[in-house]
């Protein structure tokens, strides 16, 4: 972790860059009741891991691309929507420093300010992503992601199309949102 970096409780899928799923924190006793609940205003599918920052705020992102930040006591602090033109978010975003980063279906890497929910930047990094490229990895200011580079093939009859996909790996320097390397 970089000097002065924020230490988040659960910043990515399975909690740590090692993806162990281990947390040093003791879970509160919820056997009698939940601490709080939330009902989405729009019917979305929420299957991504909720993320927890250094102040115990919770971030939930739907497949449709709606992200919501909650305070530790369940108060909705902000929401962000990727928009139809960039597609939904099929996988799990990641918290890196003071940003929430996500990869959209149509290949946009999007950076959201943790405090305000405002979009800081968005960059088209690939043609598309899907649920087989489902989570980002962030460590020491570098974000690693997988994406699909689709190729449309027309079969002999000329009527049927199918997608052939090449999996690509990318590494981005999170603060500068510049591509460090790709692997195909």
Secondary structure elements and their pairing?
Elements (H helix, E strand, L loop, with lengths): L50 E2 L5 E4 L4 E5 L5 E6 L12 E3 L2 E5 L4 E6 L5 E6 L12 E3 L2 E13 L6 E13 L4 E6 L1
Antiparallel strand pairs: 1-2, 2-3, 3-4, 5-6, 6-7, 7-8, 9-10, 10-11, 11-12
InterPro entries: PQQ_b-propeller_rpt, PQQ_rpt_dom, Quinoprotein_ADH-like_sf, WD40/YVTN_repeat-like_dom_sf
Pfam family, one: PQQ_2
Protein name: Pyrrolo-quinoline quinone repeat domain-containing protein
Spatial strand sequence of the major β-sheet: 1-2-3-4
Q: pLDDT under 50 segments (min length 5)?
A: 151-167
* Domain tally: 1
In sequence order, what are the helices and strands, one letter per element?
Answer: EEEEEEEEEEEE
- Span from first to last CA? 28 Å
**How many helices does DSSP assign?**
0
Proportion in β-strands: 35-45%
CATH architecture designation: Beta Barrel
Class by SSE composition: mainly beta
The CATH top-level class label: Mainly Beta
Count of strand segments: 12
By CATH, the topology is Lipocalin
What is the general shape? globular
How is the main sheet built?
4 strands, antiparallel
pLDDT averaged over residues: 77
What's the alpha carbon Rg, rounded to whole Å? 18 Å
InterPro entries: PQQ_b-propeller_rpt, PQQ_rpt_dom, Quinoprotein_ADH-like_sf, WD40/YVTN_repeat-like_dom_sf
Organism: Durusdinium trenchii
Domain Pyrrolo-quinoline quinone repeat: 70-164
Region (Disordered): 1-23
